[in-house]
Amino acid sequence: GCAFPRGHPLRGLLRGEGARMDRINKEGARKHYYKGVELLKPGPEQDLEAAISEFSKAIFLVDDQPDYFAKRAHAYMLLKDYKTAVSNFRRSLKLLHTSELGRRTSNLVDAEGLARLRHQEFPDAIFLFSAALDLDPSNIYCYVHRALAQIGQSKLDEALKGLNIYLEREQKPKAKLLIHLLVARINKQLKNPTTAAVHVNSALKIDPVNEEALRLYVQLKGRAGELFAEATAYLLRNQPLKAVDCLKHAIELDPKDTRFLVRRGVIFRQMGQYNEAVADLEGVIELTKGTSTDALRQLAITYNQLGIELYSAREYTQALAVFQLAIKHDKESPSIYINRGDCHREMQEVGLALEDYLHAHKLNEADNEVRIRLSTLYDARGLTYFDRGMLDESYREFSSAIHYLPQVPHYYIHRATTAMELGNFESAVTDFREVVRIDPHNEQAWAKLSSL
Q1: Which runs of E-coded beta strand occur in 257-389?
Q2: What is the pLDDT of residue 451?
Q3: Rounded to 5 degrees, what are φ and ψ at 335?
Q4: Is residue 435 a contact partner of residue 409, using CB atoms and an 8 Å limit?
C-alpha cells in the first residue's frame, strides 16, 4: 500500500504517475508488437529472430495480451521450434479462451503437423498432432493424423488406439468408412484377423460395394475356411474344445457363413452344452430366414437329445415341452414322436401316447421301436378292458397288438382267452395253434388245445 496517509498530496501524485507509466508501457508494447508483425510478414524483409525479440519486448512490458503470445508462437512455429511455439499458444489461450479460438489454434498446429507428415518428419508431426489435441480435445481428426505419423514409425498399436478413439467419437458413418478399412488393414498386418473382420464388416455396412472392403472380406473369408478345416481335423482327433475355438474365430471372420455356426452347434450338443448349441442353430435359422434345412434338423436333434436327458431324469413335464420344440423344427422324425409318446405314457396320458406312436409308425412303418411300443400299449389296454369285462374292446386291442408285433406268443394267448370268454372257441383254437407254432414248448397253449 501507499506509505502516505489518505489526503496527502503526494498520494495522488504517485497514483497519477503509475497510470502514466502504464500508458507508456502499453504504447511501447504496441510499438514492439507491430514492429514484430512487420518483421514476421513473408518476403525479403522477414526476420523471424528479430520478430521474436520484438514480441518478447512487448510481452515484457505488457504480459496480459493474448495476441502477443499468439504472434510469438507463430514465429517460433516458422522457426520449427515447436515446443516453444506450443507453449506460447497455451499462454495465449489461457489469457483468452473460446471454443472457436481453441479450434482455430488447434487447426493451425495440426496444419503444421500435416506439413511435417508430408516430409516424413514423424517425431515432429506426432508432437504437433498431440499438441493440437491438447489445445482442442474435440478436434478428433488429429487422432487420425497422429495415427498416420505413428504408422510411419511402425508404432501400429499406438496408431490403433487413436483410430479407435476417432471411430468412437465420429458421428458421420461415411467419414468412418476409410478409417474402418485402415484399422482392418493394420489388424490384418498384426495377425489379428478377427478384429480386422469386425472393421471390414462395419465398412461394408456403410458401403456394401466398396472394392477394398470386398477384397479384404474375400481374403478374411479364405482364412475362415482354413479355420473350418482345422476344426474338422481337431474333431477327428477327438479334441472338441480346440475345434470350438477354431470355429469361434472363423465365425468372427465370416459371421455370414452358416456352416461354422451349424458345426459349432453340433459340437456343443455333443458336449452337452445345449443352450450354446441352440443359440448357434437359432442364429443360423435367423440368418437364413428359416430356409436352412440342416440347421432345422440339427436343432430338432438338439432338442430331442435334451428331452431324452430330461426324460431319463424323470422330469417328464420339462421333457415334454422340449420334445414339442423338437417337433416344431422337424415334423418328419419318427424318433421324436416316439420320445414324446414315452413322456405321455409315463404321465398316464395313454391316448396321447398312442397318437404319437401311430404318427411315428406312419412316418416309418419299418421302425421296430415304434412297433414294440404300439403292441405293448395295445396289449396293456386289452388287459385293462378284460379286467373290466369289456370283452369286445379287449379282443380288438389284443388284435392291434398282434398286428404290430405278430411274433409275440402271449398276445395270442390273451386274445384266445378273450375269445373263449366270448364263446368264440374256433378263434381261440386258431390263436393257441399260432402260439405253439411260434413257441413249440409253450405248455399253456398245449394245455388249452388239449382241452378244447
Answers
A1: none
A2: 87
A3: -60, -35
A4: yes
Q: Give 272's DSSP letter.
A: T
How far is the C-alpha of 104 from the C-alpha of 331, rounded, in Å?
69
Look over the chain and give the mean of its residue pLDDT values, rounded to a whole number. 92
Distance CA 128, CA 139 (A): 13
Site of grid cell 451349424: 262
Distance CA 251, CA 257 (A): 7
In whole angstroms, give the CA distance from residue 336 to residue 300: 8
Query: How many residues are there in the chain?
Result: 452
Report pLDDT digits (tens) over 21-55: 889 989 999 999 999 999 999 999 899 999 999 99
236 Cβ contact list (under 8 Å, min separation 6): none
pTM: 0.61
Mean pLDDT across 201-222: 91
Pick the closest to residue 398 from 367, 425, 431, 424 (CA basis): 431
> Which residues touch 238 (CB under 8 Å, ≥6 apart)?
none
Q: Find, among 419, 415, 293, 400, the residue nearest to 354 by Cα.
A: 400
